[in-house]
Design goal:
Immunoglobulin-like; 17 strands; disordered N terminus; 18% helix; five-stranded mixed β-sheet; flat; alpha+beta; 239 residues; 46% strand; 1 helix
Length: 239
């Protein structure tokens, strides 16, 4: 009786240990899978787009320069991670002035940075955020009598409301032409997850421009035309 009882207990212990080991193994496996999916969800983020510009095209030494822009496709998981949650700004001038900084992005995608223009030169701005990038330029002069080119932009569409499949035409005219400079158009669909597209359009000799495209999504479209650091908006509807 004693032997049988001990043997019975031994069998139960062995069985329990097997179940326990099996359970622990499955638990570890599930935890590993869970961590793997969590890691994948963390590293895969939506495609981002961005803009960058200075508040003016021309500054004098000692002026305050404001660089700003908008980022779309921000992943909440990345918003507070460094450097992924920050915009990288690189400034480079023809006089070999070089600076690189990181700027916080607000929850609405807006970012801004100010600095004192201490060195003259023509500056290039390179902005990056995750997989997006944008470029801009501005000039800083040490000459008090230098007069910059001042531009104006007009913009209009051939209709205010379109049906999906219609051709949209955006046109207008620029005064104060800078040789070799194209007008930039940025189109954002506010109703389709803020989908974004951009175009660089050459000017005719009289400063006029025209851009045509066929929309692929319905929604309210916000357009911003920018030239020589002057920007004007317009909007229309795609039904």
């Amino acid at each position: 009786m004693i032997t049988m009882t001990q043997k019975h207990v031994k069998l139960n212990v062995t069985g329990d240990l097997s179940i326990l080991i099996f359970g622990v193994t499955i638990g570890i496996l599930l935890l590993s899978i869970s961590q793997s999916f969590a890691f994948d969800a963390f590293v895969i983020h939506p495609t981002s787009t961005m803009t960058v510009h200075a508040d003016k095209a021309f500054y004098k030494v000692g002026n305050i320069v404001t660089i700003s822009g908008i980022v779309t496709g921000i992943s909440p998981s990345y918003q507070h991670q460094e450097p992924s949650g920050k915009v990288g700004l690189l400034f480079y001038s023809d006089t070999n002035v070089f600076e690189k900084i990181l700027v916080d992005v607000q929850s609405n995608g807006v970012y801004s940075y100010q600095f004192n223009a201490t060195h003259a030169g023509t500056y290039q701005i390179f902005a990056t955020y995750q997989d997006a990038s944008a470029q801009g330029t501005f000039k800083v002069s040490s000459k008090s009598n230098e007069i910059p080119v001042v531009s104006t932009i007009s913009i209009q569409t051939d209709k205010s409301t379109y049906v999906l499949g219609d051709k949209v035409e955006i046109r207008g005219k620029v005064t104060g032409i800078v040789p070799g400079l194209s007008i930039s158009l940025v189109l954002v669909n506010e109703d389709a997850y803020k989908s974004y597209q951009s175009a660089s359009v050459s000017l005719s000799s009289d400063g006029s421009y025209s851009y045509q495209y066929i929309p692929q999504e319905r929604g309210k479209i916000d357009v911003v035309a920018s030239y020589n650091y002057v920007a004007v908006p317009i909007e229309y509807i795609i039904k």
